[in-house]
Amino acid sequence: MQNGFYSVTGAMVTQFNRLDRISNNLANLNTAGYKGQREIIGDFMRIFQQKRDVLPLQNNTVEASKFLNRSINRVPRIVDEYTDFGMGSMIKTGNPLDLALGDKNLFFAIDTPAGIRLSRDGSFKINENGELVTKDGFPVMSDTYLTNRQKITIPINAADISIDKNGRIEYIDQSAINEPVYLGRLMVVSVDDLHNLKPEGGNYFTVKKGRVEDEMKIVKRSSDVHQKMLEKANVNPVREMTALIETNRLVEMYQKAMTTQMNDLNNDAINKLASVRA
Question: Based on the domain organization, do 163 and 208 belong to the same domain?
Fold first, then answer.
């Protein structure tokens, strides 16, 4: 049994998984409201020890087995994954349907085919039915949506759409006397535990357990909705590129070590064993 081979293989798999996460962060540099994905790299020995400390079981493994497995147990691996909910910088767009949230624990509620999802991406638009939707065409929920299922619909003759810091939507009716007309209010929500959120495709979040609607809390007065602005991704491109280079170098190093284990050491062992005379 070649412990070195298994150790190098495990370490390489860890770097491949890390590489996927870095690539995803870099691919979403220009995605509004995107939150970077991070990982924590540890080893099996530390995880095993933490669990053993709370278990009423004695460690009866013989010393020889402990020595044999020690190198394998020290293989680096991803022990946890999490989302960095730090705020990204805001940019001014001038588009009245672009919205940014000024607190990291605030989200827009979106009605998707998979159920209610949360999003920080406020780049909204109006579809052919006059409804306020995401770039994927999913309805942006109003604060009364859960009770009456009424969508936010903006009339064709609407001008000067205004959304205040609490998400209240008004427009000027050009066919009337240019008086502000109230349309509704965006559903802006928060959650008790950000660690309970997990990312989904399309820059949406759901919960790890249960239903989103059970975990979210509607914020009546947020004062953190900013019109004509978008929140940029909170990904640092310099940091990600540095991590990308580091990961690629580690993969190359592990590849060379794997080649050494499989070819050089095996050939050396075979040649030496074959040369031993009875």
Answer: yes
**What are the pLDDT tens digits along the chain (278 aa)?**
566 677 777 788 888 999 999 999 999 999 999 999 998 887 766 666 666 666 666 666 666 555 556 656 667 777 788 999 999 999 999 999 999 999 999 999 999 999 999 999 999 999 999 999 999 999 999 999 999 988 899 887 777 899 999 999 998 876 666 778 888 999 999 999 999 999 998 899 999 988 999 999 999 888 899 999 999 999 999 999 999 999 999 888 888 887 777 776 667 666 766 665 54
Instruction: Give the list of residues 6+ apart from residue 55 with CB closer than 8 angstroms, or none.
Output: none
Determine if the pTM surpasses 0.85: no
Cα Rg of the chain (Å, integer): 27
- Domain enclosing residue 80, as ranges: 3-85+236-275
Specify whether 69 is located in the same domain as 38.
yes
Dist. CA 231–CA 89, nearest whole Å: 6
The burial of 169, by beta-carbon neighbours within 10 Å (0-12 exposed, 13-18 middle, 19 or more buried), is given as buried
Torsion-angle region of residue 76: left (phi > 0), alpha (psi -120 to 50) or beta? beta
Q: Which of 148, 190, 191, 136 is nearest to 167 (CA)?
A: 190
